[in-house]
Batch of 4 targets.
Target 1
Amino acid sequence: MAALVLLGLVGPTALILRREAGPGAWAAMVLLLGLAAGTKPTLLPIMIVGCSFAVVISWIAERRLPWRPLVLLGLSGLFLLASSFTLIGSARGSRLQFFAALRAQPYYQAVTGDRSIPATGGWFIPSVASGDGRMILFIATMVTWYLVTEAPRLLSLLGLSIKPVRRDPAYWWTGGCVAAGVGITLVLSHTGYSEYYFLTAVLALGMVAVVAVGADLARRGDLLSLAITASAGVLTATVLFLYWPVNRATNTVAGALTGLLLPFGILAAVGALVILLMNRARTAAAIGLQVIVLTIAAGLPAQLVSYTNAIEAATKPRPAPNEGSRTYLTRDEQDAMLWLHEHKAAGDVAVTNVFCLPARFRAGCAEDAYWVSGLSGVRLYLGGWAYAPANLAADHYETSFLTRPSPWPDRLQESLDAVQKPTPQLLARLKNQVGVDWIVADLPAGPVSPALDKLAVRAFSNEDMRIYQLR
């Protein structure tokens, strides 16, 4: 969804930067920035970096302060500031930490032995902070691999340096956005690896931009040489994909380097040879176009496999519900929440015993259950707190953000007591002082006291659920 919104920004941004925008384009830009603010916290920082690129390069190229990209930069900053008060709570707990994203990459844990929790540690992840030269070499290998795998998108930066496209300010903006998505991912650490949202947001934009750069550089006479280059890229990548030995259990730096970088080195050598043979004039524009074609073509075999797997998964008959899945909801649980959705009033609040997936609460469970409020639309006195800012921003912790104790232990205890050990005094306080209207009791989540039938009005029940209305 974030990628779709970022692609939607291309049209009005290009018109504005190219001085072709009318009032409609500016209006669309304001609406799209508002949509970006509410879609994902990663979008506006990416937009800000892209606009900053456009400002700096325009200033250098035109030798005067460019007001159009400056206005875009200011609008993006204002929307980011406004959204920071209400819409980016899940970003709490994020911090600057170089190379933290590599924790989730192949071989990292096996080679480094680092099993630290995301968003813990200092400015560098522990494997680098240790100062071990072997580990620093490994991280350098991982960073190189990461950048090489993003080359099909990073080649959009050629639009900043090669004639004639370098004169187009739209490429200044797209280059900044792609650089931001790829770069911020490497310098930010989030408790749930959400720094990768910066990368995923620019994947589509990077491909659109690099194809646009290639199209602007292409000439009709290039067709045969481009076809040969593309064929070389596809053939080499296919052979490597099918036959290159991969040891997924390797725990050595040499093994990781061989598995991650050597295939790309072979592809680069073949590509360089073919490009030099095909481009005797060796102009920057011709070489840049050949590199773009080779890189995109070399990515096709892996993309074809992924696309085939996706089609196969989409066309398979739907499997039977996995009742053992932690996210499985029974029909009775769903029916009860849909009933509550139909009978709630605006502003109603409920207390429940559902916080975790699977539902039964115990210390250390994964407290990311949101189906009660999600299906019913009723606000909860306390629901799953995994993404609560108070939980994500905790300074000292030894477990994942998914399994930390509730930041509001009093609310947790009162919620459990309201279902398991209710008293007239507790229910009266919840009703009169807190504003609770409903008790949503899930039997799979734990025991439900029979006393609730005397202390509240049973409004709905089935085999799995009891819903009570407070008097």
Note: The radius of gyration is 27 Å.
Target 2
Amino acid sequence: MPVRPTLRGTSMVLATAALGWVTTVPPAVGAAPREAEPPVSTLCVPAGTLRGAGGQRADVSLCAEHGTARLSLTAPAVCAREGSPARYSCLSSGTWTLRREGRTVLTGTLPGGRDYPGPGTYDVTADVRVRSEPGEVDLRGTVRGRITLTTPRPEPTHRVEVDRTTLRPNGTTLLRYTVARDGESGDDSARFGLIGEEDTGMELSTSDERCGNPLTGAHPSRTRNTAVLDCALTGLQPGRPTTVAVRVKLRERCGTVVSKLGYWIPRGQSLYTGGMLAGPTVGCD
């Protein structure tokens, strides 16, 4: 049974139980010219049918949304019961594995995404649970599909570097992070985050006025999480990076500090207009 077309980002998706295809919406009339971007598109393929002892049935598809730095997978399904013409939309959850030529490339949860692995033909295996109300459908099983992704891997627009790779227990280590925007896409703002391991007692601090330890708890609590540092950066332009100096205070027990950078990409009024970059992890030898 055909699935009603749905609008996802800048793409109109029409998937059937036999195959999936994509058409993209052109830019709005009068829109300002901007750097060419690959279209965000969704490809759906049939993945299998789950059946229950009571006549329950779920026709499952696997859908991959790509065109940005992320690959997102979902498993939409249509549920029914034997002898009834009624069809129900289902809730799908579970895990997925992406393989290429027998080698595992990515794993994740449903629905969910990971860094886009690039163009190619991939075999997808998903362990799913499909439920619907009404219809009393609750089925589990494994489904499989093959998807061919054609969008080139996007060139990175931002990067994060750090001048040290190890921390020093029972002391304070100074880390200097360089945050750069190398691509023309997006704007000069970004959100830079550093997250340490709270149970080690580590403390992150800086004299940089763009950064602070976030508040925890309900108002009027002034308690801050000293294992986390949040920085609101502006002025990032190609050829104009910025540096954030951070002090990491450790006790006897060592831990790691991860970094993340969130930034805007030009999607106009689309809901999904942000990107996330994993920066370097600093730990102990």
Note: The chain has no helices and 22 strands.
Target 3
Amino acid sequence: MRRLFPVTDETAARDSGGGPGTAGQAGAAGADRAHRADRADREWGLEELAEAYAYPSGLPGSPDASDASGGAGASGPQPWLRANMVSTLDGAAQHDGRSQPISSAADMRIFGTLRALADVVVVGAETVRQEGYRPARAREDFAALREAAGQGPAPAIAVVSASLALDFSLPLFTSPLVPTLVLTGAAAAPDRIAAAEKAGAQVVIAGDGMGVDPARAVRALAERGLYRLLTEGGPRLLGQLVAAGVLDELCLTVSPMLTAGDAQRIAGGPPVAVPRRFELTSLLEEAGFLFSRYRRT
């Protein structure tokens, strides 16, 4: 893996503290070595990936959690919602209904890292069914990092579902390390809510009708102390989050594959009135796969 953006020779030299004279030359030489290492095509360790994908400063557990310039606002800490998706060159987010065929080993390392950094993984009910979701597991490699941030051993999974047409006998509900959350509307069928709770899930009402209000869901999770939010889709859920204006960041893997067909894009649903503008903050590459981070402007 190598970093393509934002590292440049100029910024590497500047960041090293290099200036005129011998000290500047030494600093520039050190920066050049660091720059070459950053650009070298090698497998990054999990610690490097965790640093590259760190959540913004100011969130609870961060060293600078009281810094309001980061994730904290006038009314206290604000949640940060990032999405992690993969797309082929021709825009397909899935092949045969699943994302795995268009993924890679490096993509899965980043997938695991993003989960390990999150307080909660928000996912749509259809994606749970299609991808065979299981509970998030504790990762020894990230145990110290999570403990330092005041996080539990693994992120919770929060399933968004209006109908609650879910198989509550699955391990995701019956035996998670952290209780699974089910986000639904106030008009959800009482018997399905009872079935979810009987299986061990915690039901969170985040909408007045059948469906879930994305902004209310984000607030409800933050009220539970879950500020580092990660969504893995699917496309319909991501489209709803985009339309509601609650998505802060998109981590998009561009897979060097073509599938044709009529597969979904990474986000679906009605179009927004005005396109949402995001800015590129990071770009990594490995084996032709591009791993980008975009943050809303």
Note: Confidence is low (pLDDT under 50) at residues 13-24.
Target 4
Amino acid sequence: MAWYPAATKMELQPESDSQPAIRPTQFIVHSIVAPWTAKRTYEYWRDSTNLESHFGLGYEGDLAQYIGTETRADANAGANRRPDGSGAVSIETASNTKASDPWTDAQVEQLVRLGVWLHQRHDIPLRICRTADDPGYGYHRLHSAWAVSGTACPGDARVKQFREVVFPEIVRRATNKPAPTQPAPAPAEQSEEDGDMPQLLDEANPIDVPIGAQWTGLAFNDPILHTGPRRHDTLVHLLFEDAPDGTVVEGRFYLTDTQGQNPSGYLPTRHRGGGGHQFTLVGQIPADRHLRFEVRALTPDGAPVKLLHRVASGLYWAA
């Protein structure tokens, strides 16, 4: 687990030791709808609920950390921990009882410093999360999958601050150059006759994963290979450990909506044995659809096979 050196450590137990590990890919900010200090927020998590955030921030800039950033905390619903092991780092920030006030200057400064450290420590990319599982920075109401029944958190004033002050300053300090306050727009539509230049997909992930008879979605940098509208020529290379004779590995690409729901799969490709296997797909992705990849391993005794490494590569074009 990782602890931010500039925060006061107030470790929550048993959660800190009992909850599963995550690979931090997002930073999500909240308002706690109470004018609490970081210590009072700790006491609330400890004594009154089985939920918690990684950090708490008071009006005066008092910052505490309750759980290591590589351990799951439960403030973000679907972003707490995903099947691929990725998850979000969360912070609750003091607010008035209507969550209508802006962050104080001291709070803004602490959010910026923490945001820079998370980029440096965990390589969280310097962008506002484009989808619920897209790595980057965000606030609680940005994506519905981050809240069980919907939320206005952290409030209109703080959303405006996040986009216009906090996030741009995180990027400026992390890179020594200014950044846009909005996610980058999609590329302008072009056709092959216009001579559009391709871009390169090149993502890899070395985390070991046991693959069994159930279809398992894979993350490379993240679970999304492509976002439509887009034309693509994609190759996925998987490396498995030695497998028993008779093992069959099946992989398939599939499309979902932008929330990862309503999947539609392409036909699976079948390979035999362990070792390296490649899967390819050439096609066009409609607007508001994501391309993903999943795999399963069928062994004679039903035991899983360990996936050692995965790479996704290929060219793509604006559709």
Note: DSSP finds four helices and 17 strands in the chain.
